[in-house]
Design goal:
The chain has about 130 residues and is mostly beta strands. Helices cover about 15% and strands about 45% of the residues. The protein is built from one helix and eight strands, in the order ββββββββα. The protein has one helix at about 110-125, and strands at about 5, 10-20, 40-50, 55-60, 75, 80-85, 90-95, 100. The strands form two sheets. The protein has a six-stranded mixed sheet, with no helix packed on it. Strands 5-8 form a two-stranded antiparallel ribbon. It is globular and about 40 Å long. About 15% of the residues are buried.
Length: about 130
């Protein structure tokens, strides 16, 4: 299938929902990339910038993400999506060069996002 780059700049908030853990196969052995590095898998919640919809994706990296905890907002470096098909099953897998925590801010961006969502919700009530 085809690898496609994902423009993370078009995504809204990205948060960790499952902290990084070693990726293992059905036999319990740690999976490795082509260079022999252990693979790590991290569950991320991705919320589209213009909407209320959120998706959870599992992102594989060949470098252990550091400082990532459940609920923390993160930055994803060089995210790629890969559509796959095996034995009649299909899906999309995600791979990135790295996942790093965002520096904590004053919280202003989150509050602004909450206000705009609330304003949209109240416009129908007027």
């Amino acid at each position: 299938m085809q690898n496609k780059p994902v423009d993370v700049g078009r995504l809204g908030s990205i948060r960790c929902v499952v902290p990084p853990e070693l990726r293992t196969g059905p036999d319990g052995r740690v999976r490795q990339d082509r260079d022999g590095n252990a693979q790590w898998i991290t569950g991320l919640s991705v919320r589209q910038a213009e909407g209320r919809r959120a998706d959870v994706i599992e992102v594989v990296t060949s470098v252990q993400p550091q400082g990532i905890t459940e609920g923390s907002e993160v930055r994803v470096e060089n995210l790629w999506a890969n559509d796959w098909a095996v034995d009649g099953r299909t899906g999309t897998s995600y791979r990135a060069d790295g996942i790093t925590p965002l520096a904590s801010t004053s919280g202003a961006p989150s509050a602004a996002g909450g206000q705009s969502a609330g304003a949209r919700g109240k416009s129908g009530d007027a």
